[in-house]
Amino acid sequence: MREIESVQRKGTTLNVKFDDGETITFEDCWLRDNCRCSKCFNAATKQRAFHILDLPDVSFQEIEFNKSGLTVIWNDDHVSTYTPDFLLQFHNKIWSNSRRMAPKLWRGKVPEVARIPAHTFINSTDGAKLIFQSLLDYGLAFVEQVEPTLEATEVVCKALGGIQNTLFGGMWTISPEPGVNDTAYMNIALQQHTDLSSFTEPAGLQVFHCLRHDGIGGESVVSDGFYAANRLKEEHPEDFAFLTQYNVEAEYMFDGHSYRYAAPAIELDRFGDLKAIRFNSFDRAPIAFDKPEECRAYYRSMKNFAKYIEDPACQWQFKLKPGTILAFDNFRVLHGRTGFTGMRVIGGTYVARTDWLDKARSLELIK
Ligand SMILES: [Fe+2]
Ligand SMILES: [Zn+2]
Hints:
binds zinc ion; NE0471 N-terminal domain-like; binds fe (ii) ion; Double-stranded beta-helix; four-stranded antiparallel sheet; 26% helix; alpha+beta; six-stranded mixed sheet
């Protein structure tokens, strides 16, 4: 429990100094907006109880404080109290550090990725924490000892956050289908890509369960898009900058559909950290460029980025066997497969990012 050391009023501002030496400056409008009394805040639903247009334009009448709290009496006689711990969350360094992700970049095999039996993952908080922490750290997790059926796979998918419905349905299976021209339904090798780059909301997680394979080949190949983006930033900074700004248009026109979206291949978040990779070489739409330099920068940057994810030293290749589910972060990890023979059936689904992050947040792994 932190303590308040001093409070200094300067016009519409309060400088609150804490016992650890930190000082935070609060504006009067912020303090009134964040009053936690029962008229201003619904503690049961954890929602604000008034609209921003009803936030009164008030000023400080009196300020009182002791070690364990700050009280503001406003000029409309409303009284607000704040604990030091509540106020300290809003020190901007503490606040942003609590929200920044801390991915552990990798190349090649990652032995640290969690491998947890399905019953432990589904029935215990500790098991669930290991899976979601692994997804946060590496963008990958394995759930083992699953019956090789779509129904048993669905139970695990629900525990991962629930099913994101797409044109492919909720739970889906992929197997070679003669006559279907989507590369996923053939038996050829697939290079590294993220799924649904043409969607406004791409898949959050992708879940794969090899239900059956009578043949050879068909190994899964994954790579860390954040590692590749970091290498690009170090070795080709101008390409990294281009790919964080240029909106690459993607399209999916198969079977009467018409999906289209334009977004940077490397997206940064509000802190300037890596947020998302969108990369599917095959779903790139033909693009009209404003200037020849832009066109040349596009080809140079996309190729330089793709060289890292296609470098075998950056890839992790393994054979998925019936019983083991692979879940991976489609906003970060790229995937592909080697060519194969015979009948290979992959069951799985997508999980929306907002839903798996909700699970991770509820487990207090992130803010
Ligand atoms: Fe895919
Ligand atoms: Zn209030």
